[in-house]
Specification:
- The structure holds two protein chains of two kinds.
- In chain A, 23% of the residues lie in helices and 25% in strands.
- By secondary structure, chain A is an alpha/beta fold.
- Chain A folds into two domains: 4-139 and 271-314, Metallo-beta-lactamase, Chain A (4-Layer Sandwich); 144-267, Rossmann fold.
- Chain A is globular and about 65 Å long.
- The two termini of chain A are 39 Å apart.
- Chain B folds into three domains: 2-143, DNA ligase i, domain 1 (Orthogonal Bundle), CATH 1.10.3260.10; 205-400, D-amino Acid Aminotransferase, Chain A, domain 1 (2-Layer Sandwich); 404-528, OB fold (Dihydrolipoamide Acetyltransferase, E2P).
- The N and C termini of chain B lie far apart (55 Å).
- The chains are: A alpha/beta, B alpha+beta.
- At the A-B interface, helix 6 and helix 8 of A face helix 5, helix 6 and helix 18 of B.
């Protein structure tokens, strides 16, 4: 087998390379910069070109080689290329081919277009490694346009009542989608983590206020605050009162998840594939062997076996999928 | 149905009381009488019988959603709410219905007796023509309990604002059994009081747990001190030569408490007593358990009546000679109450004694002694207090004895429902018994949302085995369990049953070797019984 699932991560012995390893190794291919996939301590890294600055911002000094989509490198006879995963900017599926055996390790992905990231590219293969974060038929996410209308209506409604709108989402991925969707003349203030992440991504910050200790309430009056999950329940949020709080996450599809967090509003927005997306992705690969990682592994694998009569198995990994408030664990500070 | 769905979503999504009240006011103002009545009835927990069996509902939903039954069950266990699960699985469509809430409710009532095939077609017709939000609310109407995070008191408040009627009047007029359909709320609330049903109770005045220092209270001489009884709070109403007994849960329980029937000849018409219904024999209060067993019986035998006789420990008089006296100060009501009880002269009515107490120090002693009398603490009622409606701070306080506590280790967990769906929040705890861990109680509430998430993550990482929805976990996390009482119970494996167990706190400082033993609990059991 070209690929093995080891306790350090997904491993290709022939090329002696790991994909998103969770323990330090000599050669690591990183599908994307979220902290459960891109960890510190590897001797050398390979990632997509667009992940470079954010990886350096998050992981500090690393030895990093980058590759554009659809370009092939050869490691000890194994042809390796990166392809759009549609998850966040710079996210990639890893395709490995050796003596006619083709594997695709998709990392985290979504099939729906978000208007920011290069859309997911279906790849033919014999072996497909898929996530299953939202691998239940109850997860069916709305289109970006619909979301955009709901989000802006909510902000407008709050502003009319003199309330700030506080929106919570990941610094990498979600925050940029939220900012992209906002259509408002109101002042928009960003949590510094988001401001810095934007800067690392080359995302235009000129329109936004960066939060500093000099912040005065009157700067909003009312306005929009985009923050990461760390802000929830913290004294930091108090200064924006009166406000209404919204979370943006796929988990917001469930009423319980929303109510548990005392959210005023939950927007169903995810960078992971929903049920339909997962099914489409698996079908498009034509793979006979599917390895289901993080999420509703056993259910999704059982469904694939029953519905498509393919050989689907669950695989233990340390990937964590989507947390409601944050990528968990928290993004590490840059190493000096 | 659209307007009601909108109201439901607003109530469901808001966490602010004022927003909820204003959403209800807007609804009541703009909707017509029949819908307003149904909305009121549904929001206060009154609803028609389930028209469709749950098993049929599941089967038909899987058919329409085209998912295998096992996948439906998997989804349901994650969502934790049947109505919501179905609304998420059925293919999404545009809203395509103009039925009013009343029309929908009438259909729900009418379909109850129809054959299954007709029910199925009726359901599919709704399921195929509703938006996701409407689907969810509709499913709520035909499944389990219809709750949406507003209390009855809050609904009363909204109605009071809508029609500009005093909240207490609203509460009184809408208390109890409002079974007549298509009632006009506006007419009822603005109309005369005289047309009242003779069985109608007054809204109960409830006390908060004392949580402020004595220094912020008036001098102790202004307070009437009574024991806090552990029974069923109730009202006995004598009007038109009839007796009605209401529980605090607004249940008419006259049939369960037949010993009060004689009061129709002992008390004058137009008398309403407030008190605690207690099992009482040979001058002492029996355990609450005994009464509960009696209430559970369909027929009350002579033997039961003799074994577990009930009485009301009376502490207030709300109506005297047909006159509502709730606005009188407590000390005057008390005088009248004493006269009424004394002249009735019956063993089923007892006067809740007023305790002599001259200092706050003494009060603390009395509170601790209350346990030995089968009580759970003290009541502090300001002598000038009028009889309010609902739970209010200031003039009435309860000061409960500290609960018993036991340290125990978490061994099983199950996902919660509703607000806690998809989160492991229902726990089973164990204590040591001769070197083995034995499960002895379940406990739910008591952790903060943050702790819940933390424990949930720990459970997912430390699962040993899964049996259906239940997981056994590594015995490691120690919690302090608080409870109000302990009884021997042959039905439980451990032989004991706790009353009102809940998690007091997470003892991160303790490990499983340091928790309590079954021996400790048996000792406690012996000391209290």
């Amino acid at each position: 087998m070209l690929i093995q699932f080891t306790n350090r991560g997904i491993y290709c012995p022939q090329a002696d390379v790991y994909i998103d390893p969770w323990k330090p190794v000599s050669k690591a291919i990183i599908t994307h910069a979220h902290s459960d996939h891109a960890r510190i301590g590897n001797s050398s890294y390979l990632s997509h070109t667009d992940s470079e600055s954010i990886l350096r911002y998050r992981l500090g000094e690393i030895s990093l080689q980058t590759l554009p989509y659809n370009e092939t490198v050869v490691m000890n006879g194994v042809r390796i290329s990166l392809h759009p995963a549609g998850h966040v900017i710079g996210s990639a599926q890893v395709r490995l081919e050796y003596q006619g055996e083709v594997w695709v390790i998709s990392g985290d992905y979504k099939v729906k277009k978000d208007g920011l990231t290069i859309p997911f590219e279906p790849l033919k293969c014999q072996h497909f490694v898929t996530e299953s974060t939202f691998g239940l038929p109850i997860y069916n996410f709305p289109e970006s346009d619909e979301l955009k209308i709901r989000l802006n209506d909510w902000v407008k409604e709050n502003a009319e009542r003199g309330l700030n709108s506080v929106i919570i989402g990941y610094a990498l991925g979600k925050a940029q989608r939220i900012l992209n969707a906002l259509e408002t003349d109101l002042p928009i203030l960003l949590h510094s983590t988001i401001y810095n992440t934007n800067a690392a991504l080359g995302f235009d910050n000129s329109r936004y206020i960066k939060f500093t200790q000099e912040f005065k309430k009157e700067q909003l009056n009312p306005g929009v605050v985009v923050a990461t999950g760390t802000a929830v329940g913290s004294p930091w949020l108090k200064r924006f009162e009166p406000y209404r709080l919204a979370f943006c996450s796929g988990w917001m599809q469930l009423r319980g998840a929303r109510r548990r967090r005392n959210a005023d509003k939950g927007f169903v927005m995810s960078d992971h594939a929903d049920w339909k997306g997962l099914n489409e992705a698996v079908e498009a690969t034509g793979a006979e062997n599917v390895y289901v990682t993080h999420g509703y592994k056993s259910v999704f694998a059982a469904w694939l076996r029953e519905r498509y009569k393919i050989n689907a198995v669950e695989v233990e990994t340390l990937f964590e999928g989507e947390g409601v408030e944050n990528e968990s664990p928290e993004p590490e500070a840059p190493q000096q | 149905m659209k307007a009601f769905t909108e109201l439901y979503s607003q109530l469901d999504q808001s966490t602010k009381t004022n927003d909820k009240v204003s959403a209800m006011v807007t609804y009541f103002t703009h909707t017509h009488a029949a819908d307003a009545f149904w909305a009121f009835a549904l929001l206060t927990g009154r609803r028609p019988k389930r028209p469709v069996r749950t098993s049929d509902l599941k089967l038909w939903a899987t058919e329409l959603a085209q998912v295998p039954y096992w996948l439906f069950e998997e989804s349901y266990s994650v969502v934790g709410d049947l109505a919501e699960t179905i609304s998420l699985l059925i293919p999404l469509q545009e809203s395509n219905t103009h039925k009013s809430l009343t029309e929908v409710m009438n259909e729900i009532i009418a379909i109850q007796l129809k054959p299954d095939e007709e029910k199925k077609q009726w359901l599919f017709n709704f399921w195929n023509n509703f938006s996701r939000e409407e689907l969810f609310v509709f499913n709520k109407l035909i499944t389990g309990s219809f709750r949406v995070g507003v209390s009855q008191q809050l609904v009363f408040k909204a109605l009071s604002k809508t029609y500009d009627v005093d909240e207490r009047v609203v509460a009184h007029k809408l208390m109890g059994d409002i079974s007549s359909q298509n009632l006009d709320l506006k007419e009822l609330l603005l109309g005369e009081t005289a047309s009242f049903d003779a069985s109608k109770p007054y809204p109960f005045y409830l006390a908060y747990q004392l949580d402020i220092p004595f220094s912020e209270l008036d001098d102790i001489q202004y307070w009437q001190i009574e024991l806090k009884y552990d029974g069923i709070r109730g009202q006995i109403i004598v009007r038109n030569n009839q007796v009605h007994v209401w529980s605090r849960g607004e249940e008419l329980m006259t049939d369960k408490f037949i010993e009060f029937d004689i009061l129709k000849s002992l008390l004058p018409n137009g008398t309403v007593l407030d008190g605690e219904i207690l099992p009482f024999k040979d001058n002492r209060i029996l355990s609450f358990n005994e009464m509960q067993k009696r209430i559970g019986r369909k027929n009350i035998s002579k033997k039961t009546l003799a074994d577990v006789p009930l009485c009301m420990m009376c502490y207030d008089l709300l109506e005297h000679n047909g006159e509502d006296i709730r606005q009188m100060p407590l000390y005057e009501r008390r005088k009248l109450l004493e006269t009424v009880i004394n002249s009735a002269d019956t063993s089923v009515l007892k006067l809740s004694p007023v305790l002599d107490c001259y200092s706050w120090e003494m009060l603390d002693v009395l509170r601790n002694e209350s346990k030995t009398l089968g009580c759970e603490g003290l009541m502090l009622k300001h002598k000038e207090s009028i009889y309010e409606t609902g739970r209010r701070r200031g003039k009435w306080w309860k000061w409960k004895v500290d609960p018993y506590t036991v340290d125990a280790v978490l061994i099983y967990a199950q996902a919660g429902h509703g607000r806690r769906a998809n989160l492991y929040t229902d726990y089973t705890f164990a204590i040591w018994d001769k070197g083995e861990l034995v499960p002895f109680t379940k406990a739910y509430s008591g952790l903060t949302d943050k702790e819940l998430v933390e424990v949930d993550a720990w459970i997912k990482k430390n699962t040993i085995e899964k049996f259906g929805p239940v997981r056994s976990v590594k015995a490691e996390l120690v919690f302090e369990i608080a409870f109000e009482g302990i009884n021997a119970s042959p039905r439980h494996k451990s032989g004991i049953a706790l009353r009102f167990p809940r998690i007091a706190r997470w003892r991160k400082d303790k490990n499983k070797e340091e928790i309590n033993t079954k021996e400790d609990l048996l000792q406690l059991l012996n000391s209290v019984s």
